[in-house]
């Protein structure tokens, strides 16, 4: 009946708002504040594609986006890492923060750093699939106004993958945000870095000034290729990106997760070290003569926006988030994630029991700090880990499981009444 539909809709709205609030707190208070990050690049598969369809069609579509003809565009760099101006180069590199997978129990680690005396910055690190599976970076909050994207058609990136030649074994994404929030819902587009690199090499053939093996790819991602996501998952029927109000954040993600409605992993994903060298990040737009013919590509001078420092950004967080930050750090500690990963390796690969693994750790620390300090440090670590486990278990029983039960009940009722049901966050 109409009243039943209204009741279910109300329950759905309340539950969704509650879940989003909790997730937002966790994301904003964690070691990173994602929009996985965190999360991002062009060429997307249909929203309801199967994992196999997503793996193929999203990459194929992404190739088309990365192959956009760059010779007829005007480029407006926002962040310039070349040697044109050292101060601009350093300010550009300092404008980003990492958003790796610690929030979901991962141990990946990355950073964007200035490379002195080189005309690029290096976004590098190690992406691990143990508990996570992505690395990311994003701009710090802009101090004054958002980036003006009026008249622009999309985001561009000048880059070169220096670590290996298997760009296709990772998912590369660009991220933009159209509001001042710092939660996990952002606009992302997946792009084909492999295709962009191959196109750059083809253009370098025959040019004596360019080394084909060191070709710089120019990736172009139109605004209309960005889609609203929550983490790595597309939001069905999400509103299209509207850049007229300004861009509040630009970011990048390397991930094992393909953009899809359901959580989908890339087959044959390559974990481990990566090094993506970046010259410029900015906006682009087509330019034409009065007669409509294309003109050659041109690049403007970068005007790097002023960002808040990490300390100032933390101070601007709501009071509730600042109060919850110590708890969030306790629950989502990267050190705890790494200890858990090390314990798994010792038990599964070296066949040690938990007690023998702990004793082994005490012996390792003894050489640098002595037996007494080593035992005391181990006791402290175990106490914190036990407290963390108790808090997590309590939250699961009191909060997580009831929410899941309510959500499952609502979805079952909707299915029984023939209503459209969206997949749960765990699917």
Q: What this model shows, in words?
A:
This protein is 37% helix and 22% strand. With 427 residues, it is of the alpha+beta class. The radius of gyration is 23 Å and the shape is globular. Helix 1 crosses helix 6 (319-331), helix 1 (2-29) runs antiparallel to helix 9 and helix 8 packs across helix 9. Strand 10 (227-230) and strand 11 (233-234) form a beta hairpin. Residues 1-68 and 288-296 have low confidence and may be disordered. It has helices at 2-29, 51-66, 86-93, 193-204, 310-315, 319-331, 334-348, 354-369, 371-416, and strands at 73-80, 96-98, 109-114, 121-127, 134-139, 154-161, 171-177, 185-191, 217-222, 227-230, 233-234, 249-255, 257-258, 264-265, 272-286, 298-299. The relative contact order is 0.18. The protein starts with a helix and ends in an 11-residue tail after the last helix. It contains nine helices and 16 strands. Strands 1, 3, 4, 6, 9, 15 and 16 form a seven-stranded mixed beta sheet that branches. A seven-stranded antiparallel beta sheet has the order 2-5-12-7-8-10-11. A two-stranded antiparallel ribbon has the order 13-14.
